[in-house]
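Help wanted!
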Amino acid sequence: MNENIKPLEIRDECQITQTHEEKVARAKSLLPDDDVLFELSEFFKLFGDSTRIKILEAINGSELCVCDISEVVGVSSSGVSHQLRVLRQNRLVKATRVGKETYYTLDDDHIGDIIKIGFNHINERRGLA
Amino acid sequence: MNENIKPLEIRDECQITQTHEEKVARAKSLLPDDDVLFELSEFFKLFGDSTRIKILEAINGSELCVCDISEVVGVSSSGVSHQLRVLRQNRLVKATRVGKETYYTLDDDHIGDIIKIGFNHINERRGLA
DNA sequence: TAATCATGTGAGCAGTTGTTCATATGATTA
DNA sequence: TAATCATATGAACAACTGCTCACATGATTA
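Answered by r_m:
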């Protein structure tokens, strides 16, 4: 950029970065805020556990109570209940109490869509591999 | 506690499940195989870490070397390298060596799309909240 | 009311994960 | 060649996660 006298930056990063200064600056400016990216990763994390994915898939289409879900996914009612709380708090599932039972469904059509997109990607990759 | 003679069902699940037997059976039959669901959750898990999401977003559009990525996302080169390996092994990013540097890009257009879908969902939810 | 049932929740734990540090590798340059 | 640089990788560790167990809660029924 200019005839800089300073041979070394204060920070002990690689010097080559200086040649990519613009690229780095641009990438930095395009990168969303930290809290947004954190929220985004937290969102994806919800799908990043096989028990939770199973639960979501199980109630995708049919309304099931905790006990049913427990049997479908093969995890204790307690374990399912813990995961349902997480999913509920993040508004991925909706709960309806009927007597002693609580029925769960997906909160939002998007949730099913997102899982489907993941499926498609996996399947495409399997075709290539 | 007390010596109740009650036989208490063979499996210690809730008995009410029997009334939902059909529903449970149907949900079970519709549920994809365990290994598929496991792979799917592993796939989503890759997006479930803020450092990895940052890396993916950073190289979405511009090709960056490890050192650049390190500066953009604010993690040591070593840490970035470790995560890049994970992303590489799962074919989310592609590496090109040029001299001493290795440039990374997204392996597939789908990857950017999936992140975008997550973004849209987050933003929609923010609007509602 | 007491008993029973479905669900919810806190504690504790084993297994996992992401980071840093130290060092190795592979490439360029003096 | 030796020195330097960018990247890669193994080890170690702290933090996190999901599960089970034990018990609590809220609802129904005998």
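OP: Thanks! One thing I noticed: Residues 39-128 of chain B form a domain with the Arc Repressor Mutant, subunit A fold (CATH 1.10.10.10).
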